[in-house]
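Lab notebook: predicted structure, single chain.

Context: the supervisor wants predicted structures on file for every construct in the current expression panel, including those that have not yet been purified. This is the next one on the list. No modifications to the sequence; it matches the entry in the shared construct table.
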Amino acid sequence: MGIITRIPKKPPIRHFLKFLKENSVIAGNPAETITRARKEEKDPAVLFKNEYKAILFEAQGHIRDYAILLTFLKSGIRESELAALSLEDVDFVHDVLTVREGKGKKERTIPLMPELKRGLQRYVADRDRQSNIVDVETLFLARNGTSLNPSSIRKLVKKYYTKAGVRKSGVHTLRHTFSAHNINNGMSIADLQKVLGHKKKETTLKYIHVVNTSLRETMLKTQA
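Prediction complete. Output recorded below exactly as produced.
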């Protein structure tokens, strides 16, 4: 069998050169000296105002679920951070939400906006009436009184995306939505970085690009 017959049909050039080197057809592989181009990152998926309002509408009859969705949309926290929230992390007196189990174990505080404050107060009052509480310090509880885990939170969020007919999905999309809409409404990159708990400013800067594209016009229309 000749060497050429062993070459895959239309191989990628890197693999082809590697094959030739391994079979002593060429002395060196020039592709090894070339740095691969980084894959272009996609813009974060963001919900329009009418989309996240539709999701909240579907959850309005479920006090806990509504509060969870509102917490994501009005604070930008991660699913693991929401699952770790305790009752004492919500300060209704000073209007502050404290995230103690953030990425890198860094604690940070997030302003408690009026709409989120009302939603959480309503939930906490309803939670106090739950008779089977097991994890007494945890803020968001499952029906059996134990802590909600991230997997359960993801399923809950996905359920309301489906009910609202919103094709975008994922808890992180709610975080992206919080970020992009706040940048669009004038929040500084430095402030957003603090709220999101980003270590690097570059991670936060991607939201600037989102609101500077055609999405900006659409978002402004849906704000009306």
